[in-house]
């Protein structure tokens, strides 16, 4: 092989090896360092607020960091208190209305069993008695097989639910511990924020600092845009649900719209976790006009969000709508529901590398220039 091509291949292999090593190290160390990554991100976010307090209070930076963190915690607990209060209010409303609705469901189930199931059973019994013995045995075997399959599936489903509950309660203490560690780490990072940044500037080469600073600016802009996009999408969901419920004259329209918007933020749930059980309940209680109306409202919310999400994301984080759509789809396919966040984040990171010239520098390094 020609000597220049051998050197290019060697440098390309070296770059790929470094990328693979960094990716592997990040993947396997994430479970250990994620509280500190969260703390670093939070420290960067609150740093402008801390600086604002420093300019106006005259207190030491540590006290200002405590003030800002306390404000964030108070706001978080206030929101949590509001959510719990709304849940208690909704639970009280359900406690008052549920017995009446359950009685309706019981009456409907009894009528359905008497008018629909029993005639079918009698027809099947008459048909079954007219069959030959071999045919009866075949039908009995198929019913036993179907019953076994249903029982096995039900047992597996219940086992998964029970395991999920146990995993949730086992995960809860770890989450609380990680949150406390993140808050403490945020305080120490934010308190000595400029000492850390000065140390990094001394330790790293100037060219690497320029590239890192440019990537940081791009990512900060993209993160701000992403948060704004998510808040916009949640606001759209809340407004659509609120308008629809007010037109349908549904009780507690503001509360339902507020919680639907919050749940719409969660990857595994979404607005469907509110609307689908609600529609099924309305169908079972023979409230078909309202069930159809709620179904239409859910369809409108779903379509508007699906159509608006790529456009809003592309506008907020600087991606082309097609790029945002590809990032969402690829992230969903590779990482599941969390890929709807990871996909655009990786796309933005790659775009930041391109815009800041890092990819060009790597290519020039591989070519030996």
Automatic annotation (TrEMBL):
InterPro entries: AI-2E-like, YtvI-like. It is found in: Membrane. The chain crosses the membrane at residues 12-30, 36-53, 65-88, 168-189, 231-250, 256-281, 288-308, 328-350. It is a multi-pass membrane protein. Keywords: Membrane, Transmembrane, Transmembrane helix. The keyword Hydrolase does not apply. It holds the Pfam family AI-2E_transport. It comes from the Bacteria. NCBIfam families: spore_ytvI. Belongs to the autoinducer-2 exporter (AI-2E) (TC 2.A.86) family. This is Sporulation integral membrane protein YtvI. The lineage of its organism: Bacteria, Bacillati, Bacillota, Bacilli, Bacillales.
């Amino acid at each position: 092989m020609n000597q220049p091509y051998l050197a290019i291949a060697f440098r390309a292999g070296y770059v790929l090896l470094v990328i693979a090593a960094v990716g592997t190290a990040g993947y396997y160390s994430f479970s250990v360092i994620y509280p500190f990554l969260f703390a670093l991100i939070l420290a960067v976010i609150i740093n402008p607020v801390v600086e604002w307090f420093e300019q106006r209070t005259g207190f030491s930076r540590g006290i200002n960091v405590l003030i800002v963190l306390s404000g964030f915690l108070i706001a978080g607990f206030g929101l949590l208190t509001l959510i719990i209060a709304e849940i208690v209010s909704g639970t009280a409303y359900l406690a008052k209305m549920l017995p009446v609705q359950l009685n309706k469901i019981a009456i409907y189930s009894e009528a359905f069993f008497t008018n629909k199931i029993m005639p079918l059973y009698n027809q099947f019994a008459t048909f079954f008695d007219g069959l030959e013995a071999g045919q009866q045995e075949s039908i009995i075997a198929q019913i036993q097989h179907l019953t076994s399959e249903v029982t096995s599936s039900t047992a597996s489903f219940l086992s998964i639910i029970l395991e999920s509950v146990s995993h949730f309660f086992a995960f809860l203490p770890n989450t609380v511990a990680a949150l406390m560690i993140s808050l403490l780490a945020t305080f120490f990072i934010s308190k000595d924020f400029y000492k850390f940044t000065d140390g990094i500037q001394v330790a790293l080469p100037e060219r690497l600092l320029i590239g890192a600073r440019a990537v940081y600016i791009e990512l900060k802009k993209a993160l701000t845009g992403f948060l704004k996009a998510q808040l916009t999408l949640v606001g759209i969901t809340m407004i659509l649900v609120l308008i629809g419920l007010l037109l349908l004259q549904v009780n507690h329209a503001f509360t339902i719209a507020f919680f639907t918007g919050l749940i719409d933020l969660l990857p595994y749930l979404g607005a469907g976790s509110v609307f689908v059980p609600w529609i099924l309940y309305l169908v079972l209680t023979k409230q078909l006009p309202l069930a159809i109306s709620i179904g239409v409202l859910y369809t409108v919310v779903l379509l508007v969000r699906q159509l608006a999400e790529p456009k809003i994301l592309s506008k907020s984080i600087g991606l082309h709508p097609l790029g945002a759509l590809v990032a969402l789809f690829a992230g969903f396919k590779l990482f599941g529901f969390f890929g709807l966040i990871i996909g655009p984040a990786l796309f933005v990171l790659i775009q930041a590398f391109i815009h800041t010239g890092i990819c060009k520098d790597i290519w020039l390094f591989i070519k030996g220039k």
